[in-house]
Amino acid sequence: MQTVAVLGLGYVGFPLAELLVKSKKYKVVGLDISPAAVLRARRLLKNKNFTASGDFTALKRADISVVCVPTPTLRNFQPDYGPVKNACLSIVKNLKSGQLVIIESTVNPGTCEEVVMPILERYGAIAGKDFLLAHCPERIDPGNKKWTLVNIPRNVGGLDPESTKRAKEFYRSFLKSEIKVMGSLKGAEATKIIENTFRDINIAYVNELAMSFDAMCIDLLEVIEGAKTKPFAFMPHYPGTGVGGHCISVDPYYLIDRALKSGFEHRFLEMARAVNNGMPAYTVSLLEKELEKLGLKLRHVTMGLLGLAYKPNVADMRESPALKILKILKGKRAKVFTFDPFIPKLSTVKNLGVLLKKCEVIVLATAHREFINLSPQTLKKAGVKLVIDGRNCLPKEKILAAGIAYKGIGH
Questions:
Q1: CA-to-CA distance for 127 and 116, rounded, in angstroms?
Q2: Which CATH architecture has domain 278-408?
Q3: Is 278-408 in the same CATH topology as 2-183?
Q4: What is the value of pTM for the model shown?
Q5: Strand intervals (E) in 98-177
Q6: DSSP SS3 for 386
Q7: Each residue's pLDDT tens digit, 365-406
Q8: Tens digits of per-residue pLDDT, 105-159?
Q9: 359 catalytic, yes or no?
Q10: Fold of the domain built from segment(s) 193-276
């Protein structure tokens, strides 16, 4: 039985380790620099074929190493390859001859050859001879019950034919999905970047439409529903308070940075990022305009922010627009209470009912199921005067009929 080392036990690495153990085909070593991540993995995955540790010398017995560490951006939005570099340094210090090294972390086209390979060859090992190198960009959608790690199609590219072959065989051994073989490492690296950049661009497009249509008093949601009737060449996207998560809000910067180093400026991608980054501020500006219509001022009302996570029904706050909205409101000295059923420790009230009783104005930032089931009668009874629906998920007409002011993003 081969041994697989999974470097990084976060939202990508731990589910991978769990799936590998369940396949009963591998011994799995989970490695992480965070003691908390190691303890969590030990608690959640108890199996004789799994160990979790912060001791990277365990790599010496690994036949396959899979790097699943974060790839964040720095404050200037440039890629931070520190975690990837450190993971690769740990591998080369404990390299087993013939080991297959797979990078799942999202990286720029060229990173495996320009950043990863030089580190792995630092002490004299030769790629393609002493170790194999491949890239299979992670694909995971937290909270998605239909598309899970086991059935989402994957792309694999290797440094050479043998690297590609071994990586393909590895993923086919425990996944039920299609494994598409790419012609190069760069090709595999580029797939993940363009997937998320595609989403960012289209979300920016509808967010800009929302701002435009708000100015022209056109209901964008109605227009999108009309456009959807075209049976080809249209894919609906929807406006909101902004883009969060570690993929869509980060990956475009990787491509922007890498292209600039090659002499090309992605102005379109830069504009999309600017639009989406500006949506929390736009949400607050809508709030202020609606308050003015009611003869109220931001400082004189009590606000309730519904949701801190970046997407519905998960506890993930990475790059969350809700946090940016909260920061803007506090900067304007607004009195704000927060509640997220998935993040109780950071909520300032213990439940939704308490928040509603305290607040005259509601800003919905995350479409958690508990929030979208809110009835206009509940809002009315609690004394809510205004709802800013940042995800366009509440019943607009019913809320208005209840005598409560309502404004969505483009709706």
A1: 11
A2: 3-Layer(aba) Sandwich (3.40)
A3: yes
A4: 0.91
A5: 99-103, 131-135, 154-158
A6: strand
A7: 999 999 999 999 999 999 999 999 999 999 999 999 999 999
A8: 999 999 999 999 999 999 999 999 999 999 999 998 888 889 999 999 999 999 9
A9: no
A10: N-(1-d-carboxylethyl)-l-norvaline Dehydrogenase; domain 2 (1.10.1040)
